[in-house]
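Hello again, I could really use a second opinion on something today. For a while now I've been wondering how a particular protein folds. Please have a think about how the structure follows from the sequence. Here's the protein in full, and shout if anything looks odd to you:

***
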Amino acid sequence: MWNKIHLWLGCLLLAVFLLTGLYMESQFPALYQGDQVMRFMYRASHIYLLFAALVHLAWSHAAPLPSQNTLLYVAPSVGLILASVLLVVAYWVEPANRMDERGYTQIALVILIIASIFRVLLHLTRSKKEIGHEVIR
């Protein structure tokens, strides 16, 4: 179930990435009017959307985790979804308000990294358990 959710969200974020690229292509000269800081903030937020989309797509092809109904296995996926929503919000809010500190982006990236590390650890413990069960059999 989660693999399909990540596949759909990855495709959706990829579409959002493409749409924000078209938005920047058509509206950018009027938006930043030579302000390179504003331009780089939009570009960075744009690339973070691609990053989140690619993580979703990678997770959609990962081996499913066992017992996916427990909080332990659901937390990384929920974290990635939350981080993705924050990155979309950050794209529209942070550059437009000329925020010196990028709070939404920073929180989203920390959540995304922690969720990814947690998911890798879950896969490592799963593979060790499977190896142990095969040896016992």
Notes: The chain has four helices and no strands. The two ends are 29 Å apart (CA to CA). The mean pLDDT is 84. Helices lie at 2-32, 36-60, 71-93, 103-136.
